[in-house]
Amino acid sequence: MLNSLSSTVKKGNITEYLHFAGENTGAARLHSFTGGLRENMVPESATAVVSGDLADLQAKLDAFVEEYKLRGEIKKKTVSTR
User: Fold this and answer.
1) Euclidean distance between CA atoms 64 and 68, whole angstroms
2) Sign of CA dihedral 49, 60, 46, 11
């Protein structure tokens, strides 16, 4: 659920910040999401860092990129926890 939306409009440029209610404590956890080189620019790429139960993530990504005619890939990275 969207908790708040902050907007800044300056000389025809717009910057949006979305804030969602709730906890990031489900079976999969989003650690970060980044995209774009600067504000008010359609990003060439985006990166999400997630962990947890990701068993069906590849199938969901495949369906999403097909529906929206995008490209996407999953890169697996093992992180050691000491």
Assistant:
1) 6
2) negative
Among 80, 22, 72, 71, which residue's Cα sits nearest to residue 51? 80
Q: Are strands 13-20 and 28-35 parallel, antiparallel or unpaired?
A: unpaired
6 and 14 Cβ atoms separated by less than 8 Å: no
Q: How confident is the model at residue 77 (pLDDT cuts 50, 70, 90)?
A: confident
Dihedral, CA of residue 59, residue 42, residue 46 and residue 65, to nearest 10: 10
Give dist(CA 36, CA 2) in Å, integer.
22
Dist CA 17 CA 46 (whole Å):
16
The pLDDT value given to residue 68: 92
Tokens of 59: 């199938």
